[in-house]
Design goal:
The structure holds two protein chains of two kinds. Chain A contains two helices and no strands. By secondary structure, chain A is mostly helical. The chains are: A mainly alpha, B mainly alpha.
Chain lengths: 56, 317
Amino acid sequence: MSFEKTTHNLHKRRMSRNVGVFVVLAAFVAIVFGLTVVKVSNMDTPVPGLQQSGGN
Amino acid sequence: MSDATINSDISAQAGEAEAGFGDYFALLKPRVMSLVVFTALVGLVAAPVAVHPFIAFCAVLFIAVGGGASGALNMWWDADIDQVMKRTARRPVPAGKVDASEALAIGLTLSAFAVVMLGLAANWVAAGLLAFTIFFYAVVYTMWLKRWTPQNIVIGGAAGAFPPMIGWAVATGGVSLEAVLMFALIFMWTPPHFWALALFMNADYEKAGVPMLTVTHGRRVTRNHILAYTVLLVPLAIGTGLTSIGGPIYMTVSVVLNAAFLWGAFRIWRRDEDTAQADKYKVEKQVFGLSLLYLFLHFGAIMAEASLKPWGLGGWA
C-alpha cells in the first residue's frame, strides 16, 4: 500500500474553484475600499449651498 | 483495494461532476457580457457629465455582473432546450457540470448584488434600470416570450438594448433622447441580426421547439422581415448621428455601414431557399458577420466622438 499523493482532475477543479473564489473576494474587498476612498474624497469638495445653510 | 483504484474511483464518480471556476464563469455568458460592457461603457463615456474613473469602472463591472446574472437565470430556465440545440449543448448546465439549482442560486444572488452595488456606487436610477433589465431578460424574454411567440427576439431584444442607457444613467442620473436612441439602435438591430443567424441555424430551433420566425412562418417571411427591420433601422442609426452624441466620424461610419447592411438585407431578401442551400447560406452568414461589425463600429464611433471632445474635436460643434 503506497501513500504517494496523486493529483486528480477532481483536485484541480477544486483548486481552481478555491483560487477563483479567493480572487473574487479579494477583488470585492478592493472595490469596496476603493469606492469608500473615492466617495469620502468627493465629500471633501464643497457642495454649493451647503456652506450658506451651515453659516446661518 | 489499492490507493490507485480508490483514487480512480473517486475521479470517475466525482471528478466529472465537480465544476471548476471556469464552468461557473461560463454561466454568466462571457461573450454576451463583453457586448454589455462595451455598450454600457459607451453610454457612460458619451454622457455629458464626467464620472470619476473608479466609479465608472465599478459601475460597468456591476452592469456586467447584472448582465451575467441574467445569463445564469436564462441557463437555469432553458436547460432543457439548451441540451437539444447543438449551439448550446456545451453550456455548463446541459453539459452536467453545474446543477440547474446552482445556476438559479448564482443568478439570483448576483442579480441582487449587482443592483445594490450599482445603486451604492452610482445612483438608484441606474440600479433600477439594471434591475428592470435583469427582470426583462430572465422573466419576460426567457420564461414568457421565447417559447410563446415568433416575435420573441423582437421584444426580448430590449433586454440587450438597455446597457448603454444604464451607462448614461450612471453619469447623468436620468435618461435623455440620446440614451433612448442608443437603446433603439440595439433594439432595431437585434431582429435582422438574430434572424440572419436563424436562417442558417434553423434546424437547432426547430428541434428544440423554439418558435423562431423561421420555424413558425418559414424562411420567405423571415427574409421579408429582415429587410423590413433593416429599412427601419437605417434612419434611426443615421438620425442618432444628428444628436449630441453624433458627429462627422459617426456619420461617415454610419452611412457606410448602413449602405452595406441594407445591401446585405436586400441580398438575403431576393434569394430563394434553393440558392441559399446550394451555397450553404453564404450570404446569410456574411450578413450575420456584418451585423456584429455594424453594432461594434456604431458604438465605437460614438465612443470616438466623445473621446475627442476634450481636444475640441468630435461632435458637431
